[in-house]
Amino acid sequence: MSIERMIQRVVKERENSKCYPFLPEIHETLLAMAKAKDEPRNVREQLARGLERYVLEDFEFSESDIGGELLELSEAFCVG
Fold first, then answer.
1. pLDDT tens, position by position, for the chain (80 residues)?
2. 3-state secondary structure the chain
3. Torsion angle, CA of 18/4/55/25, rounded to 10 degrees?
4. What total of structural domains would you count in the chain?
5. 56 FRET partner, CA 20 to 30 A, in 6, 20, 38, 45?
6. In terms of Cα–Cα distance, which of 3, 10, 8 is closest to 34?
7. 33: domain range?
């Protein structure tokens, strides 16, 4: 999934009043990642690891569909 599509998914998820508490931070990190696509690998890795920390704060969220997709996206962002 592209960063842009994931941003849209996170925005939609945030509409739920009982959404994951770190979704605002995840949203901001995704926006930063979208701007940093052409940055050096170390910058991309730093952003991706930050995203992973937010996702992994809660095991249940990290095992959810969106959590898994965010983790996959972070890995792809490091190597891409």
1. 899 999 999 999 999 999 999 999 999 999 999 999 999 999 999 999 999 999 999 999 999 999 999 999 999 998 86
2. CCHHHHHHHHHHHHCCCCCCCCHHHHHHHHHHHHHCCCCCHHHHHHHHHHHHHHHHCCHHHHCCHHHHHHHHHHHHHHHC
3. -70
4. 1
5. 38
6. 3
7. 3-14+22-79
